[in-house]
Each structure stands twice: as C-alpha cells, then as structure tokens.
Amino acid sequence: MNILIVEDEKKVAKALKDGLEAEGYTTVVAHSGEEGYYLIHEKRFDLVILDIMLPSRNGIAILKAIRSEGIGAPVIVLTAKDAIEDRVLGLDSGADDYLIKPFAFPELLARIRSILRRGRIERLRRLKLADLAMDTVVKKVTRNQKSIPLTAREFDLLEYLMRHSGQVVSREMIAHDIWKEPNRATPLDNVIDVHIARLRRKMDDPFPKKLLHTVRGVGFILRTGDA
Amino acid sequence: MNSFLKSIRVRLTLWYAAALTALILLFSAVLYHFVDVRLKHLMKKDLERDMETIEKVVREGTDEVQEYGSHFPDMLFQVAQPTTGTYKSPGWLHEKLNRAKRTRTIDRSTVKVVIGHDPFFVMKKKIRFSDQERIVEVARDAEHIDQILSTLRLYAVFSIPGSLLLAGCGGYLLSRKMLAPIGSMAAKAKEITAERLEERLPVVNPEDEIGQMAVVFNETLQRLHASFDNLRRFTSDASHELRTPLTAIRSVGEVALQKRLSPKGYRDVIGSMLEEVARLSLLVEHLLMLTRSDNGQIALKCERISLDALAKEAVEDLRVLAEEKIQSLSFKSAFPVPVCIDRQTIRQALVNLIDNAIRYTPKKGSISVSVKTRGQSEAVVEVVDNGIGIPEEHLGKIFERFYCVDRGRTRETGGNGLGLSIAQRVVEGNGGHIEVESEKNRGSLFRVVLPILAS
Predict the structure, then answer these.
(1) Class of A126-222 per CATH?
(2) Which pLDDT value is given to residue B201?
(3) Rounded to two decimals, what is the model's pTM?
(4) Are B422 and B397 in contact (CB under 8 A)?
(5) Domain A2-116 is in which class?
(6) Could you give the dihedral angle defined by the CA atoms of residues B194, B199, B205 and B209, in that order, rounded to the nearest 10 degrees?
(7) Could you give the number of structural domains in chain B?
(8) CB of A152 within 8 Å of any CB in chain B?
(9) pLDDT per position as a tens digit, B88-130
(10) Are B8 and B150 part of one and the same domain?
(11) A67, B226, B272, B427: most buried, per Cβ within 10 A?
C-alpha cells in the first residue's frame, strides 16, 4: 500500500510517515503543494493524505486539479478548520474523507483502513479473539464458553473493539461511532470510561488473561498479550 | 464661508435673526396701520362735530353763517348755496383750500388734500332744506397725523436694524454658551480610546438635551468598557487555562528526559503528556465554539424534534456517571413536547447541565430531569439536584466564561469553566434562555426554556 503524505509541517509529516510505516504502509512525503501535485502525477498511490493549508498551492486547489484531470486515488483531507462550510468544500472538491486537526492517530488509521477496504464486505457475523467470542446476530458474548451478559451499550462497545482488535481505538472514535456524537466539544469521555470499566469488570476481571487494555492518553485496545 | 455656514451656531443665529426680522416687520406694520386708522378715525369724529355745528348754523340762515364765520376765524368751512353764492370762512380763505390739487379719498365723504406742504382733511355734505340744496364743506389741519406717522416710520427705520443686530449678536453668544458642552464633549470623546474606556464625557446639565445625549453616550461607554473588560479577562483566563496543561506537558517531558526509564515508564510519561493534550484539545474546541457562537457563525438547524426524547437520551447517556456516584437520576415527562431546534447543540447544552449536576452533587444525592411546558409558548427542561448549590453572590456570574465558584474544586472535577457559557450561548442561539435558582448546600435548579413548536 502506497500512501502520499502532503503536509508542510515537518513534525506532523514525520509523525505520519513513521506511524504509517509502523503499520506496514509505504509512504512518500511532499512538503509543499507543488511537490505533492508533481508526485501525484509521477507515481500511482493507493491513498493521498492532503493538508489543506499549504504554502504555494492550497490543498483544495490541488484536489480540484487532480480530480478534473481524472486522477481517482482516494484522498483524506486534513484541516484545522472544522466549520461546516470547510468540510463541505473539502468533500465537494473530491475528498473521500476529512480529519480535523488535532486528530487522534488511531482515528487516521481507522479512516485509512475504512477507505482501503471499501467495497469489501467486512461484517462478519462471528467475531473471535483468543477465548472471547461474539455472535453479532443473536447478540451473545462468551468467554471460555461461559456466557457474559452485557447491556446493549456494552455490547456495541465490545463489538466495536473486536472489529478493531489489535488497533488502538480513541475515545473520540467511540463517541463518534457508538454514541453518534459528532460534536467534539460534548464531554462523553467520563461516560466512555465508565462503560469501559464495567465492560472490563464483566469480560476481563474474572479471567486470568487480560484482553482489554487502556493505552494511556490515547484510548483502548483489545488484543492478546500485554499492552 | 461654506464651513462657516455649516456651523450649527451660525445657522442657529441666522434662523433666529430671520425669524425675529419677520416678526418685528409684521408687528411694526400692524402697529403703523392701527395708529393710522385710529388717527383718521379721530379726525373724522372732529370733522363730523364741526359739520354738525355748521349745519345747524346754515339752517338758521345765510347771515348766521357769515356771523359765525367771522366769530370763529379758525374754523375752516365753506357753504355753497344756489341763491347767495358760496361763503368761505376766513380760515378757509387763509389756507387757500380752494386751490387744493392733489386729493386722496379717505372715505365716501372725506378726502385728504395737500396745500403746499400742509395736509388737510375735508368733509363734504349736501344739505337740503326749504327746497334748496347746499353743499357744506368743513376742513381741519391734519399735520399732526402725518407727523406722528412719519415719526413712527423713522423709529422703525432706525430701531429695527439696530435691535436685530443686537438680537443676532445676543443669539450668537447665547448659542455659543448653549453649544459649549458639545465642544467639550467632542474634545473628551477624542481622548477616550480602547485603553482609556473608564473616562466619561462631562455632563453639564443632565436635564437638557445635550446633557441627555452625554448621559446616553456615557452609558454606551459603560457597556463598551464592560465588554472590553470581559474580553480582556477572557483572554487572560484563556491563556491561563492553556498554560496549565502546557506546563504539565513541559515539566513531565523535561523530567522524563533527565531520568533513565523503562519502556513502560516512557510509555507512561507519553501517556500523561497525551492526557494533557486531550485537555488542551477540548479547551480549544470549547473556545472555538464560543467564538463562533459569538460571531453567529454556528449554523443552527431547525429540526422538528421532541424535546423530551432528546432530554431522555442525554439522561440515559450520562446515567452511568450518576450510578458510579450512587446517585439517583430520574427523568420525568408527561407528554411529547415538540420543538424546532438544533439537535446537536441543544443536546450538548443538556449534557453539560446534567453532567454539572452529577459533578456537583455528592454521592447518594439525587438529580431529577423533567420536561414540561410553561404557558402556551415555552418548552422547559428542568435539571434539579440536591448538591452543594451555588452561593448567592456567585449566582449572577456562573455563566461568565471561565467563571468558577471554586477554582480548586473545578480542577478536581475536571471542568474548564466553559460548560455553562456554552450551554447558555447555544440555548440563546436557539431562541431560548437558561434560568437558574440555587441555594448553598441545598442544591441547584437549571431551567432551559425554549420556544415550543406550535402544532
């Protein structure tokens, strides 16, 4: 998977590059709009991460130009402006998704995965991690063959974590995807923490092997092995 | 010249002088006319009396007329009779009244004649008795009338311009005195800048129009001053709030770099820094939201929803927080309350209020949320708790940005002092308002009032 990162802020560009390469992607970084525009024509990319506020050539202008030239590589736009008009402008110009700075890195990963697997059916009925099993149709969770009763919210939360197992999930992603709260200013972090704690009490505490881990300052991850 | 005419003082004076001129001219004309009429009237009365006397004499006989004429040489008269010819009194002859050329009619019987420079009034009457017609004319010297009238004209010609000049100067000086406060107000207003908003305009007399203007202007300045102060405090509070997590990030990072840590230790340090980053992000998010709502930039949608359903959703989302503190969180609503509001922002306001209620109510306390209507037009969400309450002296200020009743406590509970401000702004943006009642140690009541949707 080849990803082009067009970002003038060097630190952010490097963090994105390192983070994405650690996840197994191949990346190319362009530090200016011109360079990015040139590279898009030079090579074929599976995905472009495009900053809007760029020196010399604005991200929206680049996006419009490449779309009008028929280049269809998926584009995730990064923007510091989250006014609705700006988002609409980005999507109208041909972006596949947008992320508002400052964004959580796990969220970027999730968006990238979602775009790259687009079209492929991913909704498995049965999810499994170690001795934890979930049937998403009859809404049943078992661990070590023992049934674990969960509330609807807890079930949604666990399903979300299981679908992203092995990946860090941020509180923002949970608020957005499970509580359907698009407003980042609404304080749901405490609520999420309580639900995680309860979930953990039910599906992790009675068992010697822990699956649900808190990644301090980032979010949560469901996986075998230690955090 | 043009700018001279633009001055209010000059224009005021000119208008004043023009009005005064018109008034004086009118008054003089009326006076002149009145005196003129009055004098002529008196003259006619005299002439009528003379005529009566002469008529009596004429009826007595021709000789009597002659005798009377020589007896009263000052009487001016002539009697024309067909038989004996015309008798002219000595006075009449003396004044050469027959040579009168220029005559002016005063009324049907009376004319004014001028002999040389002397004016006379002459009255003519036909007397018929014993089948004979006589024409009697009497006259009187009218010089005094002309004298009085000409004196009056003279007075007018000399005194009107003089008094007008005097009045104009007086008006000019007076208006200068009246308008002086405006000059000093303008001078003062020039000195008042954003840095010196505590200054006020001088108020000479708060009762008059200019004084009222100054008072109104001062009130505007007062409000401006208050909002500048708010802005200044907001900026400094915001910087302070931003500085706190920045300091934490910095010191945690610096200390970690000095030590040799295990990978888990480093992960902890980074995690702790990221927690502060999350706090910073939320704060920036809140500040942005407030700024946008101040500028009216938040695009509020009008969605027809049921307020009780929205409130219930918010309550259920936060229920776990109350459960953690063993609080009872109840929800009551009798019937659906339709409203047209921006779902997302009102939801945030309700979450903020309920979250606050849970935060500031101790363990085992109770919080109740109820949705009802008030009157015909208001939808109400009440959030009542029996928590620590708000001391009365703080009640008016709790919606101010970064205002905290107790800063230490706020830090402990994780707020940043913006939740209520945001709630208030968004509710106001949706056409409603928030009411608050509270008693220290008894609890608080927050009431979100929104316009109900007429069905």
Answers:
(1) mainly alpha
(2) 81
(3) 0.64
(4) no
(5) alpha beta
(6) 10
(7) 3
(8) no
(9) 888 888 887 777 666 788 788 888 888 878 888 888 888 887 7
(10) yes
(11) B427
